[in-house]
Amino acid sequence: MSRDGYKEWLLEIKNKVRQAQLKAAANFNTTLIELYWELGKEIVQRQMEAKWGDNFLEQLAIDLKRSFPEINGFSRRNLYTIRQWYLFFSKEFEFVPQPVAQLPWSYQRLLISKIKDLKIAIQYAKATQRNGWSRDQLEINIKGNYHLRQGKADHNFAFTLPKPQSDLAAESIKDPYHFDFLGLEENAQEREIELALTQKITHFMLELGKGFAFVGRQYKIEISESDYFLDLLFYHLHLRCFVVIELKAGKFQPEYAGKLNFYLSAVDSQLKHPTDSPSIGMILCRMKDKIEVEYALRDLNKPIGISSFELSEIIPDNLKTQLPTIEEMERELMDE
């Protein structure tokens, strides 16, 4: 490469870094992403027009770190990542798409290193913002093919809920659920699974997704002179409704849907506030037949989703989560 051409270009890059530093106080992440986009664009253009190979990235890293020692993002490895990141998103966008741009740089590096499809990367960026995932959670969900599970449960929401509630409800459940953090054997029984889920409620709520607030296990409701017990009762902060979850250790049976429809009627009569949306039911079972599920849900008038769950390897104990705090719950419940 031309040494004179490089020096002139390096000076331009330094000026852009300094301009970015002045804007950083207002919005650090946005400014950083804008800088990286321009830097990635410049690197790609120089390689194409001046025929520079990847070797100049090492020299650029040395010069930028010497000029800006307080900035940690100018290693050769990160410069190469910036180039790959720019190439990944510039195929279809004039600038990195907004859902991705709003994430910290470490999240964006993870996306392009683990995902090769642009649309799927954006889907994970949106899910990260919606659910408040940490970087570790994002990586685990990518590994667990979250995009193939989200909104995949069988349900009757389109016929039992108005829009946009039906769409939001469908997006809030997935199939299958991964309960590998329980460390249970494949032949575990319903009460054993239920107890383990409540003992590890943080992990369970992480798998359910943000918005679920735990109300109780074996929640008692009285109907006429009989007592009935709901396996698990939640309130969903975004859907503004109660969610009744019934666990089944075996294959789905049509009568499960009828019984849950009965429970939802009781919850709507006894627990639902006038401003709440209709309660939603979920049946979590080990196996299901789609045709049987379709027939079982066809004529029910309560919104019910049916998903499978899996018991497999254990997730590491150091998994971090971002569950809603008590203050968040109170604030969201007071809204509207």
Polypeptide structure, described:
There is one protein chain. The chain has helices spanning about 5-25, 30-50, 55-65, 75-90, 100, 105-115, 120-130, 135-145, 145-150, 155-160, 165-170, 190-200, 200-210, 255-270, 290-300, 325-335, and strands at about 155, 175-180, 210-225, 225-235, 240-250, 280-285, 305-310. It has 16 helices and 7 strands. α12 (about 190-200) crosses α13 and α14 crosses α15.
Describe the SSE topology:
Elements: H1 3-23, H2 28-49, H3 56-67, H4 76-90, H5 98-101, H6 105-114, H7 118-131, H8 135-143, H9 146-149, E1 154-155, H10 157-160, H11 165-172, E2 177-178, H12 190-199, H13 201-208, E3 212-223, E4 226-236, E5 241-251, H14 254-270, E6 280-287, H15 290-298, E7 304-310, H16 326-334
Parallel strand pairs: 2-7, 5-6, 6-7
Antiparallel strand pairs: 1-7, 3-4, 4-5
Helix pairs in contact: 1-2, 2-4, 6-8, 12-13, 14-15
Mean pLDDT: 85
Radius of gyration: 25 Å
Sheet with most strands: 7 strands, mixed
Distance separating the two termini: 62 Å
Total beta-strand segments: 7
Element-level helix/strand string:
HHHHHHHHHEHHEHHEEEHEHEH
Structural class: alpha/beta
Large-scale geometry: elongated
Count the helices. How many? 16
The low-confidence parts are 314-323
**Binned strand content:** 15-25%
| Fraction of residues in helix | 40-55%
List key phrases describing it.
336 residues, alpha/beta, 7-stranded mixed beta sheet
Summarize this, please?
Helix content is 52%, strand content 16%. With 336 residues, the protein is α/β, with parallel strands linked by helices.
